[in-house]
Amino acid sequence: MYERIPKEGSSYSRWFDYVMEKAELYDYGRYPVKGCGIWLPYGFKIRRFVLNYMRKLLDETGHEEILMPLLIPEDLLSKEKEHIEGFKGEVYWVTKGGEEDLDVKLALRPTSETVISLYESYWLKSYKQLPRKYYQIVNIFRYETKATKPMIRVREVTTFKEAHTIHETYEDAEKQVVEAINIYRKFFDALGIPYLISKRPDWDKFAGALYTIAFDTIMPDGRTLQIGTVHNLGQNFTKVFEVRIQLSDESIDYAWQTSYGISERVIAALISVHGDDLGLILPPEFAPIQVVIVPIPIKNMWDKILEISRNVYESLKAHNIRVHLDDREEYSPGYKFYDWELRGVPLRIEIGSKEVNTGTVTLA
Amino acid sequence: MYERIPKEGSSYSRWFDYVMEKAELYDYGRYPVKGCGIWLPYGFKIRRFVLNYMRKLLDETGHEEILMPLLIPEDLLSKEKEHIEGFKGEVYWVTKGGEEDLDVKLALRPTSETVISLYESYWLKSYKQLPRKYYQIVNIFRYETKATKPMIRVREVTTFKEAHTIHETYEDAEKQVVEAINIYRKFFDALGIPYLISKRPDWDKFAGALYTIAFDTIMPDGRTLQIGTVHNLGQNFTKVFEVRIQLSDESIDYAWQTSYGISERVIAALISVHGDDLGLILPPEFAPIQVVIVPIPIKNMWDKILEISRNVYESLKAHNIRVHLDDREEYSPGYKFYDWELRGVPLRIEIGSKEVNTGTVTLA
């Protein structure tokens, strides 16, 4: 039932799809809309731990979580000319409601700079209200015409963390770019994902930004994957959205913005960087199950073994360790070892006759 | 700056909109797409606490969180005839990707019974895999033609918790309906929202269900608001999606399903049920700020008062209380009292000359 696929090199892509499926992370490739998949319970839990850590980093640096509308009317999305030029080839459009044609086409958000800028023009009038740092974690849509790949190149990006900040001066925005880079450094360091930071050439910057700084990692097939970007937006959006602010010297000027984002590519990188030929390897902080207990079936001792297993389970649980007792009788210990290694459980405890007799446990 | 609007009776609707805006919960009514709004930081935090409690109730009863695609192709959504009949008048359709017309129209999910049933036909083959209880918390879309109202009747329902369960027998599905009702009871009890439970008449059941049980509450204007529904879906979806299962007696049959949902209407009810003419009143478990400290400016004592305020702040924070120190110097204590009452902070601590001299604090 289990295969051993070399992670490194040319078989990486097959390894990745195999782990996705067998570890039950993300069901991909059989939904009738190309580029859309479904997060399965085990994968969803990894996603939850990763996002909670990102939320912690953002919350403790004064970022505020909000939730903006998915639908963006065509004229709103088109206000900043470079922005719409960059995105118009890959936007999904809603044109009908019920049986009626809509008066105005509605985009499924590809990103939300236009929406936040509209609201900032309502909310913010004075430098005293600045800086503000907002973020949301949402799905976004890109009508990709290239080959899609689960979590890496999809049409529904299910997990887009986009931060949007606004400042009184250019210098403040520059400082925010540095803060954003430091937050992402900390994030990727905690996930154990190596990265390179570089400024993108002009032709490759975010559509509407002054410049873009990107985080790249190297995947096991040797290709680079962009896993995070930080943009200094200058006054490009605040000018067209009329986000005018009274400055501390009492003059009036357009505010300055930055934005920065990560997506489920981070989880693809987490899986790919740490995994081995047997499957996932997860850092304990992000593992849905940190310890699995496998009781070894021994004739005449099974009840005793189960009892000890349950005691170990309860005492680990009492210490807030995410522990699972695999007491399924229809599977062999060998099968279970493979199964939990594939799913990247950091620690396995085996309990059999030796453990019962000696009062110790075996860790693997 | 602040008004006092009677919550009960005919002014309720004005009260609700006023509280939404002034307490900065949800910015509604000025987005260019009707029926769409934006969750503001303070409102988002209430939403977070409410959802975390729902997640806890679901996780501890064996529900597994997943995340399904937003886009549903027309033929998938149309498979169950009663279902599409019920929803087709209010579905948003994506018809274009970039500059191209799509071959198949894609619905923005109005609900996800069709998607989960498709996947269950892939995943589930045997009674040994049952029951399974899935849920997701997502946005859904309804092209409402009636008047919209923030959080109550919207086109983008931003916060839809939909659970989908699958069982071997009709009796198991019936038991699941009872479990779902008990979970919702516990949820609404914790939120302090009174409810009536009733079976909907046939013409008002969920499109595709055998029957629907609904939770209603009474709003301050005397109208009822449906705040939760539980559906026994029978085999209606499993038949058209071919979710066939080997039963414990080795025969093959279609599985049985239930689904149940709540939305941000729960938060609208939370606000409306508990509030008073001065604004929000929040149960402490769901309050973003549980205690606010307001130092009273007294000449020659301000430094001392601030120091004590900070000490109180730190010691409450150390006890994991969500505390806020309002040391803004540009606002009077009276203004601050109004402001925090409007936002429903359960407890206020005032620190002034009396408190400094006696070493006590004043609670309000």
Mean pLDDT of chain A: 96
Extended strand count of chain A? 18
What shape does the CA trace of chain A take?
A: elongated
Which residue ranges of chain A are poorly predicted, with pLDDT under 50 across at least 5 consecutive positions? Answer: none
Compute the CA-based radius of gyration of chain A. Answer: 25 Å
Name the helicity range of chain A.
25-40%
CATH fold-level name of the largest domain in chain A: BirA Bifunctional Protein, domain 2
CATH H-level superfamily of the largest domain in chain A: Bira Bifunctional Protein, Domain 2
Description:
The structure is a homodimer of 364-residue chains. Chain A has 364 residues and is of the alpha+beta class. Chain A has two domains: 9-274, Bira Bifunctional Protein, Domain 2 (BirA Bifunctional Protein, domain 2), CATH 3.30.930; 289-363, Anticodon-binding domain (Rossmann fold, 3-Layer(aba) Sandwich). Chain A is 34% helix and 27% strand. Chain A contains eleven helices and 18 strands. In chain A, strands 3-7-8-14-11-10-9 form a seven-stranded mixed beta sheet. A four-stranded mixed beta sheet of chain A has the order 16-15-17-18, sandwiched between helices. In chain A, strand 12 (244-246) and strand 13 (252-254) form a beta hairpin. The longest helix of chain A is centred in the middle third of the chain and has 22 residues, at 170-191. Chains A and B meet through strand 2, helix 2, strand 3, strand 4 and strand 5 of A and strand 2, helix 2, strand 3, strand 4 and strand 5 of B. Strand 5 (92-97) of chain A pairs antiparallel with strand 5 (92-97) of chain B, so a sheet runs across the interface.
